[in-house]
Specification:
The chain is of the alpha+beta class. The chain is 20% helix and 28% strand. Among the domains are: 46 residues, no CATH class; 195 residues, Jelly Rolls (Sandwich). Helix 1 packs across helix 3.
């Protein structure tokens, strides 16, 4: 459809004399052609301009002005909605908010309260000391131990119960330092860190809530962390031997770390990679009294049994009995008597590759500084 060559705006500008020379020529030629629509628009524009010039400014009716003013007054009289203050700006809620934040911190931070451990069983001599420089003092069943205390069982089996319900069974010759016994306000978050420099200890750890609790044991050669499990740990300066009875344990050695599952054993030599395999687990037992007669061996003689040095007692394990060796003079038997592996030694059986390698610090995985971390 062809558009009209002259617009209504062109006609208004033509009447007011605001067109350019080219536009003026175009509009005049179009009007000279006798366009009926443009003639009607021009007539209406002329009447409108004449009426505007004749009447001048027109005042609105007084009644209309009064009604408009009254409506404005009515709107101002209405109560304006008061904006609600943000909840954190209300003074009455500030103390409650502070109380909630403090309670959350005290509950979820596992270092607020120092806890204790209790000696429940003491079959034999038991000594303890405060810190590394303290003197060893004899203890009895029912004694409470605090954070930083060390316990040594020279010649008997000792059982400790920690504040969270976890149990430690120290075999003869075992030593444990209670590096950290901490928890939150209601015991939901807790942290237990122990250092075992020597001997064999059986651990029965209560299940821990994820991300809110930790249980770690450091030794001279390794460090283990658990989330609720049962395991036996034997520590010496040369190596750390782990036997997992139930659950899983993360074992970190000098060069690598791995997850050890129930029924598996692992050895972490000082300065070497882990060795992990399946084997029969040792059976902890109490040491005999010094006056008790040494166990009688078989009629074959007093020579050492296979896989053990002279003077050591080898307890037959489930893998198969072997000739036992009489005890050497006045020498306490081993805390645990591991069943001989496939090669007859005390190490674990067939090995599997440990987990991805993880470097340790210069102090080694069993440093006392890491026991409380």
């Amino acid at each position: 459809m062809k558009s009209h060559p002259v617009t209504f705006e062109d006609l208004a500008d033509w009447l007011d004399g605001r067109l350019s020379a080219e536009a003026l020529r175009r509009v005049q030629e179009h009007l000279a052609a006798g366009c009926a629509d443009c003639e009607r628009d021009l007539a209406w524009l002329r009447r409108f301009k004449e009426a505007a010039r004749a009447e001048g400014p027109v005042q609105p009716p007084a009644g209309a002005v009064a009604r408009v003013k009254a409506s404005f007054r009515a709107r101002r009289a209405l109560p304006s909605p008061t904006p609600r203050a943000a909840w954190w700006r209300v003074p009455r809620l500030a103390p409650l908010l502070a109380l909630v934040l403090v309670a959350a911190c005290l509950t979820l931070v596992p270092t607020v309260l120092a806890r204790q451990a209790t000696v429940t069983v003491a079959n034999g001599a038991l000594v303890a000391r405060k810190g590394e420089a303290g003197a060893w003092q004899p203890l009895a069943a029912g004694t409470r131990l605090a954070e930083g205390d060390s316990v040594l069982s020279p010649g008997g089996v000792v059982e400790l119960v920690l504040f969270d319900g976890s149990r430690l069974e120290l075999q003869p010759g075992a030593e444990v330092e209670l590096a950290s016994l901490r928890s939150g306000l209601f015991g939901i978050a807790r942290r237990v860190a122990l250092y075992q420099p020597a001997g064999t200890v059986r651990y029965d750890v209560e299940p821990l809530p994820a991300y809110l609790a930790s249980f770690a044991v450091a030794s001279p050669a390794a460090r283990v962390t658990v989330q609720g499990t049962r395991f036996v740990l034997t520590a010496t300066a040369a190596e750390t031997e782990l036997h997992v009875l139930q659950g899983t344990v993360t074992l970190a050695g000098a060069l690598d770390s791995a997850v050890v599952h129930g029924g598996e054993s692992a050895v972490a030599p000082a300065g070497a990679r882990l060795r992990i395999g399946s084997r029969a687990l040792p059976t902890p037992h109490a040491a005999p009294s010094p006056t008790a007669a040494p166990p009688s061996g078989p009629a074959s003689g007093s020579g050492p049994g296979p896989g053990g040095p002279a003077g050591a007692t080898s307890t037959p394990g489930p893998a198969g009995p072997g000739p036992a060796t009489p005890q050497g003079p006045k020498q306490a038997p081993s805390a645990t008597s591991p069943t001989a592996g496939p090669a007859g030694g005390s190490g674990p059986g067939p090995t599997r590759a440990p987990g991805p390698s993880g470097s340790q610090g210069a102090a080694g995985p069993g440093s006392r500084s890491q026991a409380g971390s």
